[in-house]
Amino acid sequence: MALTFVSGCIKEQGEEPFVITREDIKEYDENAKVKKNENKDSISYTLVTAIGGFAIGESKIDVVDTNTFRVFQSGSKRITDLDCYVELSSEFTSLELGSKTVSEVGYVYSHTNKYPIVDGSGCDVSGSQYLNRKNTGSDATIAFSSGCHSLDFNTDYYVRSYAILENEEGENSDTIYNQRVLKLHTTLPEDVWVQRNDVNMSNRFEAISCVNDEKVYLYGGKSGSTYFNDMWVYNKDNDVWSQLADFTEGSVAYYTGVEKRANGAMFVYPTSTDKVIYIIGGEIEGGKLTEKVIYYSIDNNRYCNPMDHPNYSTQKQLYIGGVAQYYKKQKLDDDGQPMYDENDNPIEEDDKTRPFMVSSSRAYVEDLPLAMCGNKAFVLSSPGGIRYYVGFGKGSNGNLISSFYEYQVGYDLTDGQHPLEHTLTWNVAGATSERLTGEALYQPVVEVCGSRIIVGTGESSKGGLSKNFYQLSVDEIGGVTMGKIADVPENFSARANAASFYLTYTKNGEAHERFYVGTGRTFKEGESGNLLGDLWYYDFSTEKWGKARDFSNSTYCREGAVGFAINRNDDFDKDVSNVLEEQARGVFTLGRGYHVEDNVMSYYKDAWEYLP
Length: 612
Known about the structure:
Number of helices: 1
Structural class: mainly beta
Number of domains: 2
Largest sheet: 11 strands, antiparallel
Strand content: over 45%
CATH class of the largest domain: Mainly Beta
Distance between the termini: 52 Å
Number of strands: 52
Oligomer: single chain
Shape: elongated
CATH architecture of the largest domain: 6 Propeller
CATH topology of the largest domain: Neuraminidase
């Protein structure tokens, strides 16, 4: 027979049980008896009862079988909630309770009460099992397992098993508890998608986006034959998209082209006093392509105002045909005498001490060399400084573009008496027009990954769709080259119009740096095929690819979504509160998909957040 040993709850003379601490029960220590169980590799402890003093029997240490979470879905559609839970196994042994019966077993837990009891302050009961007044008899054993659900992530809890006893009249007479209270820390969720607020704009896909100072800017997009000209910014702290100024063509329409567009490119160009977003090329109404460029001032929330142009009131040397312009002076011979030609006209040369300086008064940016869509913009560091590029995509003739074009703000000046050739602003990067060492791509993903630029997938100049990925680099003269990274797994589907993001985070003390890519279509534009809802990652440390949790099943697969990364303080959302050591998240939003249930093409405005 086991001796009783108390370290939990006992009944005083009053009606309600109370909690005592270990310091209060030192007098019982000499009567304690613990023993090793060879089979379970655990220690047996005596029981505690809340009513009637002490129970005779023992309980093994509650064993944590699972400390994890579940993803709940609505039918077979999409993720709607997370459940953080712990599963345990327990066993009461050597019970000698006479005519009493065990009617219920389960677990009681608390994250504030170190000695949780049923109906105690700050305590909850979970995993209850009703045993239909099972008579334990003498020296009986009750073994059971169940779980505590709907716990908070990343939180300390105190948990122990309990059993409720009934007397012969079917009335609850005692509650016994495991003397050993478990302290456990719930898990961090990983590799999971949770739904955020829908974006408060019209449903659309192929919107144009960029990230600056942890803010996401989005312009345009289309839904069917409707194109948009609205600008939005995302506030990660309250999970809200706010509309900025609409662009209206006005007097600059001749230079900027129509304002409603999709499937183009954006980048941010910093000035000394402002940051200017360039909206470059794209598809316009009627399915036509444009070579026009719109610029937008972040600080002033306006479009194409000469005072926001990067060269406004800034004197810069004029270039024509890529050649720096200088004032002229008469050339001197070796003796220092003025030189003349055969017609006695002075021979002139550049006066390198007097560069020809001009400043911008434009409400527009120079056109691209050709109309294009499905293009991408990116920024690269070179030995000569920061360079701004646009590349990839296709032209009006349907051919894929095999050149990169560099924006050089020094050329983007007033016409004045020295008109500029339009091709000067967007120079073919490097010394030749064919700079691609990989393949030309239409609607690839391009992602800034720390100091790297990763590009991949898309309709390919090699035929069909690509499943290759490259790292872009720039040489000393501005030429862009593509270096192939590791091949994707065989079951990675070639695709175009996918979405991506880049995350750096720490999980369980281990640092990770990963590029993620997912969704997209498996067919060329204008054809038919499957849409995708998967997610893959490339780990820069291991230089290997891995499979992440799918973004969606077949019902909500899509193309033309917007992907980006954020660092969020997430305590405003109960579903994902207190869940990460670091707050790095990936987001997919918007897009177009084929809705299986309705048998129609759908345009989305939902938003989903990935917890790595």
